[in-house]
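Summarise what follows for lecture notes:
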Amino acid sequence: MAGTDRRRQPVLGGPTIVLVEPQLGENIGSVARAMLNFGLTDLRLVSPRRNWLNDKTRAMASRADAVLDAARVFATTAEAIADLQFVFATTSRQRDMLKPVLTARAAAGEMRRAAGRGEKIGVLFGGERVGLYNHDVVLASHIITVPLNPAFASLNLGQAVLLIGYEWFQADDATPAVRFDMGRTRPANREEMVGLFEHLERELDLAGFFEHIQDKRPALVNNIRNSLQRGPLLEQDVRTLRGVIKALAGRKMPGSRRRQAEGQ
């Protein structure tokens, strides 16, 4: 459907779209087109192929050049979502993670409410070949799964982003009538949450928590990260928890022994 009228006032804003290891420039172009259809302009790419921005990319974007030209490239998913406070992961596969699983429509409502609270939102999409890895999904607080024909549940990146963008655009702004008074703090962003995860995991390693269960370490780490995200943490909560971890670690190991362990 052709319906571009550049004389009209654009509707912009909405969630950040993060593509993790996209393979084809054409697919990135189709994502940019889908995004601009619904006023989404913040595109972030994690480890895309070299020379992803080419003539085929722009052709598939169908004049959504503003999205492509403003796109930012990151080395890791954690870096790409560091400033976001509410992150969704899209997947059609069953994951062994205790996370809320929403349809795109229900997720759009959650996004609108988060936006009404002033939070920055992002949606993760995996690469064409394997989708999102578990270590990417675990960084999100919610999972989005779209109900599709179980015998043919294959969407390309542009279609997947289009579905999310459509539901976002159609959802009414559901700004809560009652807000919590957070004082001088705010919801923790992903960088602060990852810092908390890494701090706790480092101290658990030093304490020998994983020493006899190294084969189970990745699954346990994912479980710990999930448990810390079942309710939104404030920035003050993260600082308090890191202080607690530091105090407990300091009591268990004298300073000289601790410095020796950290230097190994």
The chain has two domains: 16-170, 190-263.
